[in-house]
Amino acid sequence: xxxxxxxxxxxxxxxxxxxxxxxxxxxxxxxxxxxxxxxxxxxxxxxxxxxxxxxxxxxxxxxxxxxxxxxxxxxxxxxxxxxxxxxxxxxxxxxxxxxxxxxxxxxxxxxxxxxxxxxxxxxxxxxxxxxxxxxxxxxxxxxxxxxxxxxxxxxxxxxxxxxxxxxxxxxxxxxxxxxxxxxxxxxxxxxxxxxxxxxxxxxxxxxxxxxxxxxxxxxxxxxxxxxxxxxxxxxxxxxxxxxxxxxxxxxxxxxxxxxxxxxxxxxxxxxxxxxxxxxxxxxxxxxxxxxxxxxxxxxxxxxxxxxxxxxxxxxxxxxxxxxxxxxxxxxxxxxxxxxxxxxxxxxxxxxxxxxxxxxxxxxxxxxxxxxxxxxxxxxxxxxxxxxxxxxxxxxxxxxxxxxxxxxxxxxxxxxxxxxxxxxxxxxxxxxxxxxxxxxxxxxxxxxxxxxxxxxxxxxxxxxxxxxxxxxxxxxxxxxxxxxxxxxxxxxxxxxxx
Length: 497
Fold this sequence. Notes:
Elements: H1 3-9, E1 18-22, E2 27-29, H2 30-46, E3 54-58, H3 63-75, E4 78-81, H4 88-98, E5 102-105, H5 110-119, E6 123-126, E7 156-162, E8 170-175, H6 176-190, E9 197-200, H7 208-220, E10 223-226, H8 232-238, E11 244-247, H9 249-256, E12 271-274, H10 281-291, E13 296-301, E14 305-309, E15 323-324, E16 329-333, E17 347-352, E18 359-360, H11 364-369, E19 377-385, E20 391-395, E21 401-403, E22 406-408, H12 410-418, E23 423-433, E24 437-446, H13 453-463, E25 472-475, H14 489-496
Parallel strand pairs: 1-10, 3-4, 3-5, 5-6, 9-10, 9-11, 11-12, 12-13, 24-25
Antiparallel strand pairs: 1-2, 7-8, 8-18, 13-14, 14-15, 16-17, 17-19, 19-20, 21-22, 23-24
């Protein structure tokens, strides 16, 4: 049994319905999209791809890049998507840690990454943003059908990298059951059907844009308006002909600033979903006033897919992420105690269910630390239940920054800053921003005689993806610390807010 194949691909093998509508006005049917993935499957297996191997993709959003996800399902391999904006140095870490058998990236990255791939016997193929490259070259010589490889529910299906607020990123191992059970629960809850058209303006390298959006759409046989990146004009243009939008809070704050957003424009829409970062109550209320729609907020994370959601039918509470999904158990434990928190009492959010990952790749100790003795995953997020059982997120691992739906880990940014000549120490923290939710901000202690801020900014840009680069910098004489010597970022936030 290959559950992902049985739920996503098999029902659509002969489906002539348009699956993806692209920015240039073209479209591709389910049948043709699966044929594309089948051709890629034949090509990669002929090049030596074996069941259980890891395929990593670091290419811009395109139907060809997305087809490799289906290829991984057909071939019984493990899909590892990476942010296409990662620098070479960032990418090298993932290659060395995951040790994929195939690495797919843009042509202009090949020369720098091939020596690293050669070290681990990983084949590297090009795939550019227009779909051209060695991966798709001459694939029309291959068959439209690929016999799917058998896989069990507990077999590894995907790797998504995450990390806590410190340390190197970790590969969260997601099984067939993790992905299928969660997608089916969401389809049922949100009543996604073949009558829906989803506006997809998210990346396809994290759980929201890939496993929530793509899996649910394919299970239901829905169509997707496949937008390459966040483009306000294209989203506005797509709304009248669509029914569902999955976005992050930044999508909604930007839509609200556009006078074209009206109740009339959104009259055909049935569902606006938000996740990946907290949605302000003000945004929720303003959106309802303008469009007549209440945004549905849900709660998920890389290690667990989706955990909770406001109801499709019933009260959607502003500021709440709703209730636990069917089959998922959420509890809140008192900090420093061994008992469950009372109603309205914040504590640590812990999760158990078929959606919860199987562990971190090659990190047994980190995996052990992440679970309780009775197998609940310790999320690191703080929250509480109200008396009706609605979950509210009251905080998270204190240093984590969520900017435009992206998780930013301060230590990673600080490590880069501290490598620069003239830097004595640094602290990176988040400041509130109306558009992005939070923006990364750096407080820097530097040797004034041997330091140039413009040179530092250039250095950071060369070593970090753009969304991780601090938007503000403050030069200070020393970092605030408590009696234990720990940097007090709360003081910095208060001072510069």
